[in-house]
Amino acid sequence: MEQLKFYRVNDAYGCFSNFYSHPIEIDGIKWRTSEHYFQAMKFLDVKLQRKANEIVSPMEVAKFGRDRSLPLRPDWEEVKDDIMRKAVLQKVFQNQFVFDTLISTRDLFIIEHTKNDSYWADGGDGTGNNMLGKILMEVRVLMKKALMNVEIVQGDIATTYTDVIVNAANKSLTGGGGVDGAIHRAAGPEMKDYCAKYRGCKTGEARLSSGFELKAKYVIHAVGPVWYEGEKNEDEKLYQAYNNSMLLCKEIKAKSIAFPNISTGAFRFPFERATLIQRHAIVTGLMRNDLLRKVEIVCFSEKDEVRVAKLYN
After folding, report:
1. Is 45 one of the annotated active-site residues of the chain?
2. Global pTM?
């Protein structure tokens, strides 16, 4: 099997390293890196956990965690693998670049390659356990499994037979052009009256309504961003529009949901960029929702269907 080796953060696939400079939030706490979280979890003393997170350098926090003059939690050997899994999952959930990089590895055998570690890495000569590499491959399997529940089709989302359809809404929630107008027309006037009660919706947020006269039982009205050349945090706002829709879907225990390509029409969001953000939000949302069995991406044209399918494969 063809191999992929990583170690230093500045090398290819360096984002797989625990030292990769990207914060993750776990249990309401923002950790400087996954290494900070991992080393802090060696201690049951909250003060020591906080002290670990105050250390700027991943290398220095690793030294701190290995200091055996400090009280190591008694169950560390039993829990350390699960703590690493949690860190890797959250890094994938919260960082699109890590997500995109891991999914791009397809079936490559992932190895953390260094003589400095024979448990998390391969020991430099292949005799090590390579546990971090194994966990990355486990997470990749979960990503692929989630992708199998995504279907890309061309059609009219207003006529889709899913439990929920997502409306690419404007901030007023009272209807507009494109997908928004089509859904409101098919649902009937009661939808506009119902949505008016929300008194609008901020960009990146989502609101729930009945489907009224639609085939879908529910509609989630998600407000995507207008594209301003990436100068107004549009990527994050688009991600949140999808992510908040997935969270609402989980809340109502829906088993199927259909999405349009939010913000790629009149809001001018670059299509490929928007689709990769969509893929990240939807696949990780599926990974966190065992009840959701099917996600449809309903494209306006056959050309869009081909473009989306290419990016998902």
Report:
1. no
2. 0.96
Identify whether the C-beta of residue 305 lies closer than 8 Å to the C-beta of residue 153. Answer: yes
SS3 161: coil
| pLDDT tens-digit series, residues 107-149 | 999 999 999 999 999 999 999 999 999 999 999 999 999 999 9
Long-range contacts of 110-118 (CB under 8 A, 24+ apart): 110/3, 110/4, 110/6, 110/13, 110/16, 110/136, 110/137, 110/140, 111/3, 111/4, 111/5, 111/6, 112/5, 112/6, 112/7, 112/16, 112/17, 113/5, 113/6, 113/7, 114/7
* 3-147: CATH superfamily: YbiA-like (1.10.357.40)
Instruction: Tell me which of 122, 163, 180, 304 is the catalytic residue.
Output: 180
CATH number for region 150-312: 3.40.220.10
Start-end ranges of CATH 1.10.357.40 in the chain? 3-147
pLDDT tens digits, one per residue of 210-254:
999 999 999 999 999 999 999 999 999 999 999 999 999 999 999
What DSSP string describes 83-114? HHHHHHHHHHHH-HHHHHHHHHTTTPEEEE--
How crowded is the C-beta side of 74, counted as CA atoms within 13 Å? Answer: 0
Within the chain, all domains assigned CATH 3.40.220.10 are found at: 150-312
